[in-house]
Design goal:
Elements: H1 2-23, H2 30-45, H3 53-71, H4 75-93, H5 100-112, H6 114-123, E1 126-127, E2 130-131, H7 132-137, H8 140-159, H9 161-185, H10 191-208, H11 216-221, H12 239-248, H13 254-288, H14 299-324, H15 336-367, H16 371-396, H17 400-418, H18 423-433, H19 442-445, H20 453-458, H21 460-463, E3 474-479, E4 484-489, H22 492-516, H23 524-535
Helix pairs in contact: 1-2, 1-10, 2-3, 3-4, 4-5, 4-17, 5-10, 6-10, 8-9, 13-15, 14-15, 14-16, 15-16, 16-17, 22-23
């Protein structure tokens, strides 16, 4: 037990100092990989924490996420790393948790309670046969006399000026002595960096020291993935039963209540299917069978309207199906019609997804790729996964917990998969390669990260054709007559010169930042850009 406790405390302190060294005034890059290796090594060495296949998979995912940050540095890869770290923390300490959402919640609680957990661990620690708790308890023999001495020193200083001067000289000497030692040992330490060290220690404590009193495992253990038929509690009636009882009175019995729920479900799903059918018929006539060229002017509006309808429809599908198929209605022998209507409702939502996807593809073929248009496609993919799990819930009598568990895992896997793609370069490259068929948005393309600098430099001549409709097409000049700034049209040469100057400035800023950073901020994409600039002597 002595070695286990010492390992966690030493790892917490070392982790805090390593965190400070790796990340202070540095970008998140190869330092995340080093920190990840440190975390996983300590977890593997800690025999107090049991390991299973789930914990090994979580550790491998965290290592993969850190490698993706080094190889493909972006906001998405960094977010993926933090989510992966939260999953590792949750699974390491609470291996009975099954849902990604509760695992992340456990990690958040670990971080929030980390200072308290650290203090408890210190109080219970033992080094060389000595416990810290009795040692800390002995401080009361010093604190109480110290308070009394301070109180009377203050009184005597107020009563006698000569005594007060001696006291001031004494404490001034002690203060100077302590400051000299502190400045000698920690010359570069300031308040922000001290707080950065504390943050590192708290994070390490959340990773290595377990919260003992968390009830999440017990709470989640009561959540089943498979629905079980349960006898109704006469004392604790559902809200639906109480509302029905107001109108039905004593005629409403247990069996007829289930029948009533089935009838109401049939009516509800019939109405919802008719509503979404009307929407889908309009899409069939205008989008699938109509002339898409006539819709070019309203692509954006059509896409956004479809996405909003989809969001509402999918939420309704989830809520309505979860409501009607969350209890004994799943086992009702005469629910065949309700099930068929629910399947039809799911199918029509899937068709609505296909319609929105088609709008998005038309939008991309006309105007090119953007993050928002890619985001719509990602959302559609998540909706497809959601509808598949809803179908499985109805057909195989699954619970709402099953939906959360499967969808959470699917979202995390997709997050890892999407982190493999260099999205900035992918979007700019796609739009340039399809310049003949799309309307190239020059202002949008030059707004991406420095990873696209090689592409911008390689296509300077191409971009010069689009400067007339860009931000470089005009400039503001002061008009003495109107005494205000007026927009003035610039010449082609002025536009080209302005664009080249901005590109040179961006390259200069990138090189300065790249050379300023240490090896801890190294990542492959920035290195790749730097090599291109060196090769072309930019």
């Amino acid at each position: 037990m002595k070695q286990k406790i010492n390992l966690q405390l030493m790892a917490t302190l070392t982790g805090g100092l390593l965190f400070n060294y790796l990340f202070w005034m540095e970008k998140q890059a190869i330092n995340l990989l080093i920190y990840t290796i440190f975390i996983l090594t300590i977890i593997l060495m800690d025999k107090e924490k049991s390991k299973n296949i789930k914990s090994y998979l979580a550790g491998a995912s965290l290592l993969l996420a850190s490698l993706l940050v080094v190889f493909n540095k972006s906001a998405l890869t960094v977010i993926t790393w933090y989510i992966s770290l939260a999953i590792v923390i949750g699974i390491t300490h609470f291996q009975l948790l099954r849902s990604i959402f509760t695992i992340i919640l456990a990690a958040i609680l670990q971080f929030v309670t980390a200072p308290v957990n650290l203090v408890k661990k210190i109080l219970g620690a033992r080094f060389s046969g000595m416990f810290f708790k009795p040692l800390l308890s002995s401080f009361k023999y010093i604190i109480i006399p110290l308070i009394a001495i301070t109180f009377f020193i203050t009184l005597y200083s107020a009563a006698n000026n000569i005594f007060a001067s001696y006291v001031e000289q004494f404490f001034s000497g002690i203060n100077t002595f302590i400051n000299n030692i502190f400045n000698f040992l920690f010359a570069d330490l300031n308040l922000p960096r001290f707080l950065h060290i504390i943050l590192g220690i708290v994070l390490a404590a959340a990773i290595f020291i377990r919260l003992k009193d968390l009830e999440l495992e017990k709470a989640e253990s009561g959540c089943n993935e498979q629905l079980i038929r349960q006898r109704r509690n006469k004392k604790n009636r559902s809200v639906f039963y109480n509302l029905s009882h107001i109108f039905a009175g004593s005629l409403l019995k247990r069996k007829t209540a289930l029948k009533t729920e089935n009838i109401i479900g049939i009516i509800s799903f019939s109405a919802l299917n008719l509503l979404i059918l009307a929407l889908n018929l309009i899409d069939i006539s205008t989008l699938w069978l109509g002339e898409t060229t006539s819709m070019n002017a309203s692509y954006s509006e059509a896409l956004h309207d479809g996405a909003e309808a989809l969001i509402f429809s999918i939420i309704m599908a989830m809520l309505v199906i979860v409501y009607f198929f969350s209890g004994n209605l799943n086992f009702y022998s005469k629910n065949r019609a309700l099930r068929l209507l629910a399947y039809l409702w799911i199918f029509q939502n899937a068709f609505l997804i296909a319609s929105v996807l088609l709008r998005d593809l038309h939008y991309i073929s006309a105007l090119g790729l953007t993050y928002k248009r890619i985001g719509v496609m990602v959302f559609l993919l998540l909706c497809i996964i959601g509808l598949i799990t809803v179908y499985l819930k109805v057909s195989r009598q699954k619970t709402f917990f099953y939906l959360c568990k499967v969808n959470g895992f699917a979202w995390y896997v997709l997050l890892l998969v999407f982190s493999f793609i260099n999205w900035d370069v992918f979007i700019v490259s796609y739009n340039i390669n399809h310049k003949e068929s799309i309307r190239l948005d020059f202002d949008h393309l030059i707004g991406f990260s420095d990873k696209t600098l090689p592409l911008l430099h390689q296509n300077k001549q191409l971009f010069s054709k689009y400067l007339g409709t860009s931000v470089y097409a005009s400039r503001r000049e002061y008009d003495p007559q109107t005494q205000s700034n007026q927009l003035k049209r610039t010449t082609d040469e002025e536009q080209k010169l302005a664009f080249e100057n901005v590109l040179k400035e961006r390259i200069s800023i990138f090189r300065e930042e790249y050379n300023h950073g240490s090896w801890l901020s190294w990542n492959y994409r920035d290195w790749q850009t730097q090599q291109y600039l060196l090769k072309n002597r930019l």
